[in-house]
Input
Amino acid sequence: MDSVARGTLINLTTRLAGVGLVLAITAITARVSTQAQGAFALFTSVEGVLLALMSGFGIALARRISHHGEQPGALVAATVLACVGLGVVAGALLWAFAAWGPPAYHWLWVLALGAPALLLAPNLQGLWLGQGRMAPMARLALAPPLLALLMLGIVAAWQPVSLGAVLGTWVAAKVCVGLAALFVLWRGVYLAEADFGALQRELPFVATIGVTNLIGLLNYRVGLFVVERQIGLQATGVYSIAVVIAELLWFVSGSLTQASYARIGTHERAQAAATTLRVVHLGVAVLLGAAPLLWLLARWLVPAVLGAAYADSLLPLALLLPGALIFGGASGLSAYFTNHAGQPRVPALVALVSLLLNAALSIALVPRLGIAGAAVAASLSYATSVAIVAVAFARHAGLPLRRVLLPGAQLGADLRMLYRIVKAWR
Output
């Protein structure tokens, strides 16, 4: 677990740097106007839908390496070609939606231009995920927002930053990083002659992962879409700030799960279950301390940095944080079913239940409570989904539910170990 904790800290440090860059871009956009921030939030949400639906290839690569012990160069080459082809199709659909869809989605034509290369980096990082190598993955996570911010700095030197400039640099950075990742694999001889037969055999797994990720992403974003439809783009911009800040908690639990992903994928069920529980309990324990600190920091910084209009995001943030905290435990449980058990349909079905509950509650509560209603709907749906997947995990692992929900003495040892590593890191 010591190496996992070190990998987690490396991953978390890089992710925090990356999210700091994304928050800087968000702050620039938010200061343009609340409507611009709303359009940016919808734009990145649609991008997230695309990446979620098509990111199963990377998980399949990771499982071939961590669970089966393979070096799937031929599968990697087939994955690259599939990602480019699917990106072309997605680009055409995005272009059509930008032309004939609601005005709030007009800017999707920018995303359509970059779509053929957008799927490369998220899927190719599956190679390093399966190997448990956090450094290359960290570089892939950090490069796009850093490059986008540098491009925005160049634009700002010549003219005032506009929404179009933000979206253009955002997509251009993603495309550049995707092409760079492909170049690195080509130079490193990770690519072989494409084996489409191997890819075809992985398609059921890939499709299930894609649907699972899509449902999960929509579960995070359905409130934004409902707010835009029922209240408007300005309210969407304010609520999106609460969503962005609440999701910062998941960088902690997500980093821990990612660093443990290869170990969770072991053949031994008892070992995989034990690792999963340690990841879940440690992640939730850390988030219990981080959540109130995050809200206090937001209360101080949001109005000062983004403007007084965004002070209205603090109440929905307070309502979102409990659900986001609980949901932090879901990533480890999902990794168990996906990487160890090879049953991604389990988290997919749980996420679907959560999505339907979230959508129904949002539609009912947003007209009555405004953006606070969307936050309440999200928190309730997150808590429900974690309860369901915890029961499923207990049954599959052959453990009593109490053992899953309540941490044991090992948590204290893990927290002390984490403290020692953080202290040494400093």
